[in-house]
Amino acid sequence: MANIKSAKKRVKVIEKKTAQNRAVKDGLKAALKEYDAVLATGDLEAAAEKRTEAEKLLKKAAARNVLSKQAASRHVSQITKRLNAAKAEK
Question: What is the reported pTM?
Answer without folding.
Answer: 0.86
